[in-house]
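Task card 7
Instruction: Convert sequence to structure tokens.
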Amino acid sequence: MSQTSAADNPSPMPAGPAAPDAAQQQPNLPPASDKNRRATPQSQPRPKIAGPARRRRRHTGLAVFFILWVLLPAASTGSYLYTVSVDQYASYVGFAVRKEETTSAVEVLGGIADLGSSSSSDTDILYKFIKGRQMIRNVDAQLDLRDLYNMPSDPLFGLAEGASQEELERYWDRVVQIFYDRNTGLIELRVNAFRPEDAQNVARAIVAESTRMINDLSAIAREDTTRYARDELDRALGRLKQARQALTTFRARTQIIDPQADAQGRMSLLTSLQGQLASALIDLDLLRRTARENDPRITQGERRVEVIQIRIDAERNRFGSEQNAGDDNYSKLVGDFEALAVDQEFAEKSYLSALANYDAATAEAQRQSRYLATYIPPTLAEDAEYPQRILLLLMVTGGLLLSWAITVLIYYSVRDRR
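Output:
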């Protein structure tokens, strides 16, 4: 050390025993370099050696916590599942709502209609109906679900005695599982019960109620399709009845079946009278040239001409004049009759058109029929599939173990921050 210090210090220093005194007299000497310090064995720190592990109080607490939080609940769950829980049988059923449309030849050639297309909207309605309260009430009225699922020996998986409607609805979601594929429109059900016959009966009741509901939807759709056409047909029929009744009343009042035919007869009579008048005038003119003025034949001829003229004027007045505007006016009678005839003809055409539209609407409604296609009938189970004891035990144990581990990690995290 003295040589290193002397080499670092260029000032001359006395040799011999006075060197240590000189070093003591210079306290502000620079410290030794890190390289020299690491080379000195006395400057290296000794590594700490961990002692043997000892059991602490927290270790005992964690073990007790593990036993109480994980082992005991898992053992209790396993004991209940294998000694108390009752076997459950499952019945499977699958169906779909189909809508058949028989298309005409023109539609087939044009490619504007599909055959056997599924109605997704009807399937959505059916899916909600199966999960709804009305389905539960209908099945309960048939099978008495409270008595069927009451299991006092298995309170966890059974239905409590005297359960309310809300409790029955919640339990329904547990025993009736619905699997609905919206892409294909297929619905599959799994119905659980404590006896295989009960599960199959519940599945059959669900299929029956679903079929009834689809039939009701078909009836409603058919009614909607034909309702407007039937209303139009009723209005056309009422208009036709009124037109015919008005024409009948006109004929009864005028005592004329067909005023046009009667007018033609009157015209024939008028023509005949005009011919007779012309003949009488000619005879009168001839008589005046050959007989005396006071000849009674002339007077008789003049009376004949006068009578024929009066009759002609009367007939002409009946065809129409300003003085004769009553019911004897043939112009008015013919006009009224033609108006009534036009109304009747229009009513008849409207009725025929409405009848054709109603027939077409009825045929269209019949072609668009919905039905429930069951491709998996309700099955009868032979072995109990539920409850899945191993799976439930593993799930419970895994959940307890995970929650215990998270709690321990939180504890140590809080402890290390102190």
